[in-house]
Amino acid sequence: MIRTPSTYSDWISLFDMLKNHESDEDVVVAMERGTLPWQSGVAERFTAKMIEAVNKRLDDASDRFKRNISHASGESGLLQTLNSMRKELVLMKRVVSVNAIPADIRGKYVSMVTKYADDAQKSLEDSAKSDRTGRLRFLIRNHPVNRI
Fold this sequence. Notes:
This protein is 74% helix and 0% strand.
């Protein structure tokens, strides 16, 4: 079990684990239980490291999505790829929603992840417009990555 973070150093260790895709669920559960004295200096460094980790994960998810979508065979492959992206976005939303971050600041980061998810969904829907059968568009609309 991963230790619940209470110091800046504890949090940095968890952000590093997150960036490296190590024990995701355990890391996020520990983060959700964690605390941090929210004071000038520490707060700025904390949020910078958190955003760095979240951005890396979003970049990795985007790269993985592009790779998987090009190799997806049939509807089940597409659905698996969409679901994988949605799960990653849900996880990142949980990361930026931790109670250690004051509510007003937390809301900004949740909005950031939500906007990323909405933009990804719009991009997928726009790409699917060229599908003459309409099946791709149907699947993307009925299995949105932004339902987080």
